[in-house]
Known about the structure:
The complex is a heterodimer of chains A (77) and B (159).
Chain A: H1 3-9, H2 15-43, H3 48-71
Chain B: H1 16-74, H2 83-110, H3 117-141
Helix pairs in contact in B: 1-2, 1-3
Keywords (chain B): Membrane, Transmembrane, Transmembrane helix
Transmembrane segments (chain B): 25-45, 51-74, 86-108, 120-140
Keywords (chain A): ATP synthesis, Cell membrane, CF(0), Hydrogen ion transport, Hydrolase, Ion transport, Lipid-binding, Membrane, Transmembrane, Transmembrane helix, Transport
Amino acid sequence: MDATTVLAALDGNIATVGYGLAAIGPAIGVGIVVGKTIEGVARQPELAGRLQVLMWIGIAFTEALAFIGIATYFIFV
Amino acid sequence: MTAASPERADRTPTSNPVLGRALRWGGLIAGIIAVVGGVLGYVFAGTEGLVSALVGTLMAVVFMGITGASILLANRFADSDVFVGIFFGIVLGGWLLKFILFIVLVVVLRDADWLNPTVLFLSIVAGVIASLVVDVLVVARSRMPYASDVELPKAPTDD
């Protein structure tokens, strides 16, 4: 069996790849947001309260993409 | 002469009121969206549409609210020596659990015949966007002092 046949034998829904992609971006984004917050709090612990709020807003926007991306499972057949 | 050990100040971060306010407003707006979405869903897709709109809005508001709620929960451990570890453990652990739960729910609800997938999707999107708008408005209107968590040394007393 040559390689082309093996590749052609793969089956499933290509949209599944999209759900995976929808999770990668926000995961990286949340990682950056949280990492930078740790840096900020380490530099200025007295700003922890403000930085937490900014971190929360950042996480909310980043994860919104993931939610909508994964929820497309409902409309993409 | 040894000075009495200073009283430990309350180290709860000042973000709590903002997050609490955002959660309350988020719940309120979600209620409005559930009503509007439920009516629209009922008009366009009957009872299935009504149920789908309610489920979708509930999913959106719960999953968007978990971040703020987990920060509020984590801040209860502010006096702990390992607060930073506990904080990020709870917040990021909550995030991970939330996504696993969301994917499981999506898979389970996908084939439910008592739901209308399109209405469900649209109400999730509406709920997510409304939640973001509420978050931004609450933060923009909040007044947090700079250097709010600083601990000032106690003033000397004459005795």
